[in-house]
Every structure is written in C-alpha cells, then in structure tokens.
UniProtKB/TrEMBL annotation, chain A:
Keywords: Electron transport, Transport. It comes from the Bacteria. The lineage of its organism: Bacteria, Pseudomonadati, Thermodesulfobacteriota, Desulfobacteria, Desulfobacterales. This is Electron transfer flavoprotein subunit beta. InterPro entries: ETF_a/b_N, ETF_b, ETF_beta_N, Rossmann-like_a/b/a_fold. One of its GO terms (molecular function) is electron transfer activity. PANTHER family: ELECTRON TRANSFER FLAVOPROTEIN BETA-SUBUNIT, ELECTRON TRANSFER FLAVOPROTEIN SUBUNIT BETA. Residues 22-212 form the Electron transfer flavoprotein alpha/beta-subunit N-terminal domain. Belongs to the ETF beta-subunit/FixA family.
UniProtKB/TrEMBL annotation, chain B:
GO terms for molecular function: electron transfer activity; flavin adenine dinucleotide binding. The electron transfer flavoprotein serves as a specific electron acceptor for other dehydrogenases. It transfers the electrons to the main respiratory chain via ETF-ubiquinone oxidoreductase (ETF dehydrogenase). Residues 4-184 form the Electron transfer flavoprotein alpha/beta-subunit N-terminal domain. This is Electron transfer flavoprotein subunit alpha. It comes from Desulfocicer vacuolatum DSM 3385. Keywords: Electron transport, FAD, Flavoprotein, Transport.
Amino acid sequence: MRIYVCVKHVPDTAANIKIVGDAAYDTEVKYVANPYDEYGVEEAVSLVEKNKKGEVIAVCVGDKGAANTLKAVMAMGVHRSILIKTEDQFPGSDITAKALCKAITDDGGADLIFMGKQSVDGEGMQTPYRLAAEMGLPVATGIVAFSHGGETVNVQREIDGGAKELITIKTPCVLGAAKGLNEPRFPKLPAILKAKKKEIKEMDLADMGLTDQGQCRLKSLEPVQERSNAKILEGSTREIVASLVQILKEEEKVI
Amino acid sequence: MSKTGVFIETTDQEIKQSVFGVISAAAAGGGEVTGFLLDGRADKYKDQLAACGVTELVALEAKDIDFSKSPQATGEALAKGATDFGISALLGVSSPTGNDVLARAAMALKAPLALDCMDVDFTANTVKKSHFSGKAVATLEMTGALFVCGIRPNSFEAVESPVTIKITPHTVEVENSDAIIVTEVQAADSSRKDLTEATVIISGGRPMASSDNFKILDECARKLDAVVGASRAAVDAGYAPHSMQVGQTGKIVSPKLYIGCGLSGSVQHFAGMKTSKVIVAINTDKDAPIFTKSDYGIIGDLFEVVPALTKELEKQG
Ligand SMILES: Cc1cc2nc3c(=O)[nH]c(=O)nc-3n(C[C@H](O)[C@H](O)[C@H](O)COP(=O)(O)OP(=O)(O)OC[C@H]3O[C@@H](n4cnc5c(N)ncnc54)[C@H](O)[C@@H]3O)c2cc1C
C-alpha cells in the first residue's frame, strides 16, 4: 500500500508575524510542519506499521527551507519525500492541487492520501477538495477517526456541537485530518538521525507544465490590531461582579 | 441585477441561526437573494426567509437521492442550482457542514472559493479572512463569473428586510454515487450546545482541574444564556470533550461576549476567539498575557469569581 501525505511548511503558530509591503511578511521566523498535517502523517505511518507493509511518501509544495519540515515528518516514520519548489508561500490552492496531483500520479499513484484539513497560515480549508477533484477521487475532511477496510475506509467527522458523521468512502480517497484523530509522535534521536539520510526528490513547480487559473489572489495582508490592556475591575469580588454585569448590560449591551 | 445565492443550512428541521446573518450580508450587497434549500421543507421556512430578504427559495431535489446521506450529491446539486439560476456569488455559513457543501459545490463549478470569511465585497469581488491564526487579515480577490464564499458565524447581524418570497421546486440531475456515503449521525454525548453559533461563551482553562468543576461554568452559562467552551490544555487533560475546544485546533468563534476563566491568553487560543466583540478575562495572575488582549480583566480565583457572577446574575434576574 502506498500512502501519500501532503505536508505544508508553515510559520509556527507562536511566531510573531510582521507584515511587509502589501501582501508579504517577514519570513525570518520559525517554520514547522503544518500541525493538521502531522495528524495525517501519524495516521499514515501507524497504518503502515500496523500492516507491516506499505510506504508513506510526503509531498510538499514549498520553498527550499521546506526540506527541514520534510525531514521532521520523515523522522516520524515517513519513508521518503517529494519537494515541489516554489518561492511563493501562497501559490493558491488550485495550482497547489495540480502540482500535488501530478507529483503523486507520476510517482506511481496512491492507495490513500492524507493531508491536514487546513493550513495554519493561509487557512484556506480547500486543498483536499481541490486535490480530490484533480485526481477524480472522493474526499472527506475534518476527520477525527479512521479505520481501514480495504476497498473502503470508515471515517468520522465532527459536525455541529460535537455530533459526528460516520462516513464510508471508497479507496483511493483523500482525507483531511483534524485534531482528535490521533496523537502525533515525538520522534526520538535515532529516528531523527535516520531521517537525515532519507530521500527528498526535488522538482520545480515552474517546470511542471501546469497553468495556474489564478482564481483567487492574495491582494493584501494587514496585521490584526490586538486589544490594548484590559480595564481591570477593582474592589471586592461582589463589587467586581456587580460592576461587570452592569458594564456588560448597559455599556456594552452584550447580555 | 446580480443574484446572490445562499445555501440554507438546516439542522433538525430548523434553519441554522447564523444563516440569517449571511442572508443579510447578501441582501446588503445589493443583489437579489436566492436561497437554496436541500431538506425539502420550503413551506416551513419561507416566512422566516422572506422576513430577512430572500426573494426566491429554490427547493432542490434529485431523483432517488437522499441529500442527507450523500455530501457529494449535495454539493453538486447546489452547484447545478447556482448555474441554473444565474447566481454570481454563492454564500453559506462556514460551519462543518456548510464548508463541506460549499467546497464540493465550488469544485463542481470550478469556481474560486474562500471559507471562514469575515467580510465580503460584492462589487470588488473581494473577501476578508484570517491568515496566520488570526494574526493577520487577508484580502482575497476572486475572479470569474461566480465565486463561492463561506461566512464565519456571527460575522454579520441578521437584519429584518421583509420581501415577498417565491418558492421554486427545482429538480437537478446529479450522479448517484456510493463513493462517499454518510452511514450514521451520532448525537453529541453532552447536552451542551454548539459553540460556533453562540452569542455568549464562557470558557475554562487548565485550572478547571476536572470535568466536574466545569459545572460552575455550566451554572453561570445558564444565567447568561451562554455556551461553555474550553482551552486545549483543559481538553487534552480530559476535563472537557474536544468539541468544546476553542482555538486554532478547535472551534473558531465570534460571540458578542467571551468570558475566559483561567486562560493564560495563548496565541492559539486567541486564534479562535479574538474576533469576539467583548472579551473578559478572569485570572489569578495579574501578569497573565490574557490581560493585555482583553477588554475587561478580573484578577481573582475563578472558583470564587464565577460563582459570585452567577449569583449576581441571579439577583438581577
Ligand atoms: C499547533 C498548536 C495548536 C494549538 N491549538 C490550541 C487551541 O485550539 N486552543 C487552545 O486553547 N490552545 C491551543 N494550543 C495550546 C496553547 O498553546 C496553550 O498551551 C493553551 O491554550 C493553554 O491553555 P490554558 O490557557 O487553559 O492553560 P495555561 O496556559 O496553563 O494557563 C492557565 C492560566 O490560568 C491561571 N490560573 C490558574 N489558576 C487559576 C484560578 N484558580 N483562577 C483563575 N485563573 C487561574 C494561570 O495564571 C494561567 O494564566 C495549541 C498549541 C499548538 C502548539
């Protein structure tokens, strides 16, 4: 069984993002594997471990630095990687999906494809759907449980208020992982060292002969103004809660 | 005149509350608003929809297809409806179901898609949405004859704007495929309500220390007509189910009032709730980062402050 996992190289969610120019940011920040993608990696790796056969291949559309993210997921047990190079952090989900599709197809084709349900930088939430459409495969995202039944897989996705949909999908299929699916492992030193020797096949997005429809363009980025210091309510607990209720009712009119 | 389509999402035979805000956003955009319904109960909903500006309600049907079991057919039917009725922007709520249906529709339409948008401009064809876990707002420009857009719940107030409504049953042809089937829907284990639609939320963090202690938040929530949330630290420690988690890897919420009890104010938690209108923080540590990102702060023990707040609300009725 060959499982592909799509992984994005993204700024750490704790990183301070400084916007420069109209639609760019200071990229001198710490990058990590997109946290949602790690759930996909963990699921793929543990499935292959359980079956004692199969291969897990990570595919990433990203810049040179993304090799580090690929090494990190290879330390989690991914066997080898494909890096599709572009300098653009937001190439658009359309071209990204086309590139992922071509790389996966050229590499031999998938029995299963895992990815995160969204990236934490662009928060687009649609690359799984676009990849599935490109590949002509069924898709489900927001997956919190997975079991493999050969011709089909059974998954659960969380819907409103903690209710869950139980879904059966024919394989091959594309699955977008969410938190709750599993606990991604922390690789130990031997695994990290071993990952350094694993293969990363590189190619350039520009050389893949794909056309970008450019349907959705990032026009500008603006920093979000954080609130400034809170107004601290003083007094005894009773006085404080009384004034809070009064503020919320009369000034803010939110209750 | 341009026509904006709205996916009328329903659960348990009720229109999802945040759909009305989406309709108001569409109506404010200037075009005519066409609602697309897939649960077949057009008569039941028509008055509510007319009250906020839906001029035509298209009741989509497809032969031999149960939309509740086939997400793919649902998306494709919505796409066909949008095409058949000459829609130039297709909107819906960015809920788990809304996002899924809109994404599938956008794929069928080969249209640009933006989900979890906080604003939309129908003239410029732009949307605003969060980037970098709420640290930045991106403006995205959509091209083409039609774009699809999911709106973050509570981003727009529902406003009354009564019109006369026409119900149009419309049968579409979509593939009856068994590639993806919903076999069952399991109700939530807890009696707690859905966070994303809530207008008031009270959340507990790591110091809640047990699931039992969440009762004090439940009690306060009853008085506030609020829904209870939790931080990831509280969820990972097993004090609350994952469905209650607010933040980056949990629910994205935008209530009028968010009360955080024993939260440090992490970037990842704020990624999920910083668009709340008013944020109140209760924390024992006067130097907790949450006090630098909230509107009102109470320096104190949540186990004292929350019950006192419940009492005060009780007193004031
Ligand atoms: C990729 C990634 C994704 C994440 N996603 C999320 C997410 O979706 N949601 C989320 O919440 N977190 C998320 N986190 C975790 C986040 O970084 C924080 O660790 C977490 O939010 C902290 O939870 P907390 O505020 O409850 O706990 P703590 O950080 O431990 O803070 C507890 C606070 O309570 C105060 N306190 C202690 N006792 C009391 C008392 N009796 N009364 C009042 N105050 C008291 C303390 O002073 C402290 O400030 C994510 C992290 C990563 C790396």
